[in-house]
Design brief:
By secondary structure, the chain is α+β, with helices and mostly antiparallel strands. The chain contains 4 helices and 6 strands; from the N terminus they run ααβββαβββα. The chain is 37% helix and 27% strand. A 6-stranded antiparallel beta sheet has the order 3-2-1-6-5-4, with helices on both faces. The two termini are 25 Å apart.
Length: 150
């Protein structure tokens, strides 16, 4: 993992330990990642409720996708598979829910605790082929920290 990601992990651990409510911590985490990683143009959390995802704290443009059924779009696919999904060019993805025409790539990482799917982090980028294995490793570590917050 690169130096910036390692530093961010430490800052996210600090946020997780703060005496704040869950949503305030998650919003700070979103803001931090969007601010420090130039190609993270939208950062948000979705939480599992029955067979759908409900939008939680996020930063970036508003989205009409406040509730997403499991299986629909990239986020819904991750809710079903419980595996990280990277789409380097969303225009080539058939099962994609467009948030804006600016979005070119997306990564979604599940939040799992004790084998239970709790939700996910969703990152959109305005650049094709933005996400690497380092992003995946970083975000999977973020989700482990977040699992203890929610």
């Amino acid at each position: 993992m690169n130096k910036i990601f390692k530093e961010l992990i430490e800052k996210i651990k600090e946020i997780a330990s703060m005496q704040l409510d869950k949503n305030s911590k998650l919003k700070r985490i979103c803001d931090l990642m969007k601010e420090k990683i130039h190609y993270y143009n939208w950062v948000g959390f979705y939480f599992a409720r029955d067979e759908e995802l409900v939008l939680g704290p996020f930063c970036g443009s508003d989205t009409e996708h406040k509730i997403i059924p499991f299986g629909k779009g990239i986020c819904g696919q991750v809710a079903k598979s419980k595996n990280t999904l990277i789409v380097q060019d969303v225009s080539k993805e058939k099962n994609y829910l467009a948030c804006s025409r600016e979005v070119k790539a997306e990564i979604v990482v599940p939040i799992i605790k004790d084998g239970k799917f709790l939700g996910e982090i969703d990152i959109d980028s305005h650049y094709i082929s933005s996400f690497t294995d380092e992003d995946k490793e970083f975000l999977e570590e973020v989700c482990k920290i977040v699992a203890d917050i929610i």
